Amino acid sequence: MYHEELKKFPENFLWGAASAAYQIEGAATLDGKGPSIWDEFSKIPGKTFAGTNGDVAIDHYHHYKEDVALMKELELKTYRFSVSWSRILPNGSGEVNAAGLKFYENLIDELLENKIEPVLTLYHWDLPQTLQDNYNGWEGRETITAFLEYCEILFDSFGKKVKYWVTFNEQNVFTSLGYRWAGHPPMVTNLKRMYAANHLVNLANARAIKLFHQKVPQGFIGPSFGYGPIYPATSNPEDVLAAENADSFNNRWWMDVYCHGRYPKFALNTLKKFQIAPTITAEDELVLQDKDSHPDFLGINYYHGGTVAQNRIEKPTANQREFSKTDPYLMQEKDLQSQNPETLMFQNVENPYLKKTDWGWEIDPVGFRVALRRVYAEYNLPLFITENGLGAKDELTEDKKVHDSYRINYLQTHLVEVQKAISDGVDIIGYCAWSFSDLLSWLNGYQKRYGFVYVDRNDQEEKNLERIKKDSFYWYQQVIQANGIDFK
Ligand code: BGP
Questions:
Q1: Cα 434 to averaged position of ligand 1 atoms, centre (Å)
Q2: Is residue 23 over pLDDT 50?
Q3: Burial of 366 by CB count in 10 Å (0-12 exposed, 13-18 middle, 19+ buried)?
Q4: Residue 448 CA: which ligand 1 atom is closest?
Q5: Mutate which of 442, 444, 449 for ligand 1 pocket (most atoms within 8 A of beta carbon)
Q6: What is the model's pLDDT at position 317?
Q7: What's the Rg (C-alpha) of the chain?
Q8: Given 3.20.20.80, 3.30.479.20, 1.20.1300.10, 2.40.160.90, which CATH number is that of 14-481?
Q9: Structure confidence at residue 314 (pLDDT)
Q10: Catalytic residue numbers?
Q11: What is the pTM of this model?
């Protein structure tokens, strides 16, 4: 769609930035906090980059006032942060740690005093270790009960002050990395277990939203999903079909459940064929279908999408049929095949049109517009962009400057597409860049920086944790002041 003139960003657009507890807070054992699965996992040799962990992180726990003062200077309208569950309930359920609640109350009050709208994420991956030990984490239904207990405490404590809530951050990422690829805790490599755990997270999500609607009727809640649009490698209809399949597997598998209360049929059938589909009880179906348990908005975290070609099995020509007899995938035992069932539906390929970041992530601003339009067209809910940003190795100059023009360029080109999506008619309520300040990248340490504010520490040393405003800080400040990107 061509627009001679782009629409302005809405008057009350929530310009913001985001973070997550484990990546910034530090104070890992302070004031009664219990251990989370990330506290334990990051200590296992070889699991994280250079053995980095969040014990100190950027010590936001002690620097939160200074950090909020910087947010104010940046003129942020909103700030998205997550609560560490084991700071509130050190054992995941049971005894409440008053000091933990106090920390977040102070943070929320500080934000509100500075006219910054808090966006509270309930779960950004740091499950209390006790729940992992006692119930197998998200593989045990007891964890759902514990999650609701935790949510209720936060709804009761902060429901009057916090308007926007996020249930789960990137459920697709933490279940896949945690239960399929073993890159995150609990380091499982079993697809059946992944789908089973994921199903329980869906139930936890739905029930938490329902509870929220009862307890905080004036608020808004939704999950933040790591969305990537899927492109077919060519206009070959087989590739187009493969893209449909990949979309079912990678996006709809989660989004349809959130918004329509059911799994996409084609993906579910494939999983059933390999006996790795989750067990869905009649009661579960009712929980998921209950309209009160559906989100008020969808949080979208956008970094990149993916490109796929037709699956390796459905080949139309005689030659290709011949080839499929020797296809290594088909020659695998059935249980090995079941570890990669999507091979029946699509295969991932490189996209020759896109450049990549230093960490190999495709840079695709137009894909952002595609993503926003597709999600809005399908689910018809307001969208809140809860993450988008560039991880890069920044250099601090001798006169304490960070000239991150590449980050400005990345954000600028992505915001142009957000504005185009708004002009197309997509309802977007806010944009939180990832991230406000530099922080711990889960698997890439402190060298992969995302912030508007540089934090003086590295992978080896905590140094003085001084906060230094990057060039992008001043650029974003202008964006916010102008309520858009067209300023000179
Ligand atoms: C998202 C997470 C964030 C953040 C971001 C960047 O998936 O929600 O917590 O980490 O990705 O990822 P990385 O740190 O791996 O570059």
A1: 8
A2: yes
A3: middle
A4: 16
A5: 442
A6: 43
A7: 22
A8: 3.20.20.80
A9: 56
A10: 170, 387
A11: 0.96
